[in-house]
Amino acid sequence: MTNPRTTKTIYLLLGVLGVSLLVGILVPLILPSGTYILSWLATFILSFIVLALLILIWQGAGGGKQLLWMMVLAFSMRLVLGVFLSWGLPLFGYAEESQQGGYIFYDAFKRDTQSWELASSGASLFKAFSGEFSSDQYGGLLMISSLIYRLLSPDAQRPYLMLILSAGASALGVPFIVAALRRKFNEKTAILGGWMMALYPESLILGASQMREPFLIALFALTFWGVITWFEKDRPRRDAVLAIFIGLIGLFLFSSRVAIPVLGVILVWFWLDYSGRSSKKWLQLSGWFAMGATALVIGFLSWGWLREAIHWDTLLTIRNSGWVEFALEKAPEWVKTPFVIIYGLFQPVLPAAIVDPAPWIWRSIGILRGLGWYAMLPFIIYGFFSVWRVEDKNRRRLLVWLAVIVWGWIVLSSARAGGDQWDNPRYRTIFLPWMATLAAWAISWVKARQDRWLGRWLLVEGIFLGFFTEWYISRYYSFIGNLPFWLMVVLIIVLSAGVLIGGWLWDRKHPRFTHSPDP
Q1: pTM for this one?
Q2: Distance (Å, rounded) from C-alpha 130 to C-alpha 273?
Q3: First CA to last CA across the chain, in angstroms?
Q4: Is residue 85 part of a domain?
Q5: Structural Rg of the chain based on CA atoms
Q6: Is 454 within a domain?
Q7: CB neighbourhood size of 306 (10 A)
Q8: What tens digit of pLDDT does each residue of 284-295 get?
């Protein structure tokens, strides 16, 4: 008799074949480039390879209808959005070369153009790592794009082929996060984390473009799964080793500046998990000493570059934003950098996106991105303060490390990119696997503990959004009174402090005892 698992795989692959044929037919019709039959063939082949790989990974992650839906939506939403924007930006966007070419990001336009030039030049594709191409100082994505063009699209540049790859990479990270969180936490946290990975709007925008971030996110998720799986006895150790090896090598090929911090945080997670299972105090102390010394050396070597980069990006933010320049006009120098970093934490600013008089296509993108960030922000704030209350010592250490790193990366991204509404969120989203983990854990925690603090953080965010929405609207409609900026900031701080301090005092008088297990 035929193995039921084999039969199921065959049916799934037949489904993949049908979907790939459909994608191959429709996408070249919407975005014509070169000969249609060659466009159809290239699109069909790449779609089939990507979707077949996703199905195999889905089965390896344990299968399940909900996980399948996550991956289907993660892939299809990004591909549909990417194709729509490639079609719509030339019609409804700005009259810029990159947008007229259908690219959301200028970096994607530049890299894809140079990928086509390298592919059609006949030169070795390893030239991508030579440093001759300004669009990609690392070379990994440039080489992959050039390889696809050379093998599948030698007659014409077809940017939508890279969209298929980006959408596939975004979907690829989902099963690894779900599988990792199932092992380390519980089913509820795993499912929530998977949906966040699949649907987070900033990730949707990046996955609908020819950027490197979808690949970095997927490789981070793969590496994280490998480290979690290392300690599990139900899978061969070689699976974990292979996942960590592929993940780290891929990260270094795509971006060494991302690979190094990911390697560092993953090593510390590994050590915390390992030392929590060991009773040897000397081993734990030596590990902490080694990690502390390494952190000091890295901090010393990178501080000069980071300080100059933060200073330069602060200046750019002030010069490029009229209201920021006005707000900081009389402020002392020591205030400017912290102000720009805090301003960057709230990018993309949702109230600004709502009232921005931009073309409808860009306004819609801005609102989508802002909604995503402001929906996740209260949960990762709440999660940061909640991890310290976890009762299990070993789990608490892991969660504290995760929360500290998430917020450290968010602040670093804000410092590095200033108030830039594109680079700042883009850098931040690279750590989406851990952001989603912290937010998903926080939701599971508040459900288990019936905690009041999440509601208070949501109220604080509501105060911020309310004031800033009124402030931005009043800039465009003179009949609405305009609060002085610094008075508005003081009012937000005072009201938010009232909510938080009042909540703390209330809890002291009306404690809520729960005995639910930690999620």
Answers
A1: 0.92
A2: 39
A3: 42
A4: yes
A5: 24
A6: no
A7: 14
A8: 676 666 666 666
